[in-house]
Amino acid sequence: MASPETGVLAARARALAVLRVRGAALAVALLPAAAAVVLFAGRASGHLGAGGGWDLARWIVSGAAVLSLLLAALVATVVARARPALSPSVPISEKSAPDLYRLVRDLAERLEVPAPSAIALTPDCDSWLEDRTHRAHGPPDRGEHPPAEARRAPKAPVLVIGSPFLWWMRVAELRALLAPVVAGTGPSAHPDIAAARRFIRGLDAAAAVSARARGPLRGPALRFVGQVARLLLRACREHATIMERAVAAAASERAQTVDYGLRIVAQEQVGLAYAGWDRLLTRVALPAWRMGRWPSRLDAGVVSALTELSRRDRLADGFASRLGERPACDLLEEPGAIDRAASLLAARLFHGGPAEPGPDWSPVGWHQYPEEVVDRKWRLEAARLHRVLDDLPTALPTASPTAPEAAPAAPTLSYASTPARGSAGRRPGDAPPANPADRRTGEPAAPPAGPTLARVIDRLAHDEQAGDLVAARLGAEVEREEREEAARQAALGSRAQDAAVGVAWGDGMVEGGLPLFPLQPPRTGRELLADHVTAMVCCAAVDTAGAAPGLDWLDGPALLVDGARRADLGRPVLSLVDDGDAEPLRGWLTTVGVRPEKPVRLV
């Protein structure tokens, strides 16, 4: 078995290869200047002739040397000053987590490596070391000048920990999980490895700066820098990859002596945490984010989600019994405040929300989620479905197909005739007029055009073209709403960046106000139609059958009937949406006691 020192030596060899690429680039930049020095020295010593072609060569080489030095200075300046990418995270001071810092320092002492300089949390199921020694990552300069010894002393990297780990894992499991990560501070302190990493990070930052270059003068200059940076990155790619693998191998070997048995258990918890965290974000948090609300206790919610996953998954039997042990979040002085900050950062990373709460971006607690998110989500989607149906052209007659042929045709129902809000003093959710007869002819009038589930079912079941048309229009409307929201967030992000001088994309956003890590691809029109019909059914169940909105930790919004979740609604809805067959849904409504002919509240 290879020792940690062997891995460090292998990493150092690759680091030297990276530094040789840097030296070769510098030699190429200085080559014209060296040739000019030789030509002028030869003239002064008499070894090279004067006048004629020699003087012309000296001037040409001198011009090339000046241009080469200027371009080299430009590249070096951009590489040195460009801000490396900074992982968005929540900084944790030692005052707010003394026990956590004590655990990490004890771990570093047992591993005989330098302790991390600081600790930060990230809303993801991962942990790593991050070098934040660049001056742009430090506090603003207030004229204070540290001693020369402090400036020369290498600064250890920052330990970034996935916030779900602190709430789900126990203290002993977290220590075992962090052992190989903390062990990486040893190779990071090696001068050659540190220099190679700084060079690569500078090139990467310079390439990113060039990609955002604008202007007639600044643009071409930075694009040239970007081309040089990408050329050097390609030359360093293989050496840098092998260097990082060797560093990871050395850290893993060093960590073998610390809590090796617990590391196996901790890795099992990592896999479970990934599954539960993903379900919590995509099924629970995302619907709230789309409505302008962000759950403020995501990390606390992941415990409930993972406990539920443990209960449902036979492979996870016994994991819930761990909850009796001390959770790692007890190492924080104020876990609620840290959870709130991490939850807001998660919304910004995965959805693109604002950096601060506001009137249109407010937090929501788990006890408020069913009423504030689930019920509101159903009402909004049901209202959108009826808006789309109201704009459709006149549909097929609503007369019963079993009616006698001699019977007069029933009046055609058109969703375009549905009264708009405020029209004639009525809204779609208001009760119909008391007199059902037509005052002009005395014949029974058509049923009132209100937001009822029955009319949605009849239209999708009797009109073959309605499903495709509604799905397409729903997709267009949702896409328009998302574009408007993205434009609004982009405007807010631009104003925030203008207010903060020198800020790069380290706040978790890219240009255009989009999230760094979007959770889901765009939904198809049919998926949107199924979601909206489901929302309409749930609204009808709540308004006419005594059902209630609820929260399922793994599936998100849920319909509760008599206090129990009904998870059997998906198949009847798909039968209506995909095949136009309404009988399964009508049977489900009868079983639950829903009255589809009754108007529902949309707002």
Question: What would your notes on this structure say?
Answer:
By secondary structure, the protein is mainly alpha-helical. It has 18 helices and nine strands. The strands form three sheets. A four-stranded mixed beta sheet has the order 1-2-4-3. It has a three-stranded antiparallel beta sheet with strand order 7-8-9. Helix 1 runs antiparallel to helix 2 (53-81) and helix 2 crosses helix 9. The longest helix has 42 residues, at 4-45. Residues 140-144, 395-448, 496-502 and 504-512 have low confidence and may be disordered.
Short description:
With 603 residues, this protein is mainly alpha-helical. Helix content is 56%, strand content 6%.
What's the Cα radius of gyration? 33 Å
Give the mean pLDDT.
81
Structural class: mainly alpha
Order of helices and strands: HHEHEEHEHHHHHHEHHEHHHHEEEHH
- Described by the principal axes of the CA atoms, the overall outline is flat
Number of strands: 9
Spatial order of the strands forming the largest sheet: 1-2-4-3
Give the helix proportion (percent range): 55-70%
Report the biggest beta sheet as strand number plus sense, adding barrel if it closes. Answer: 4 strands, mixed
Enumerate how many helices there are, as a single number. 18
Question: Per DSSP, what share of the residues sits in E-state strands of 2 or more residues?
Answer: 5-15%
Low-confidence stretches: 140-144, 395-448, 496-502, 504-512
For the terminal residues, how far apart are their CA atoms?
67 Å
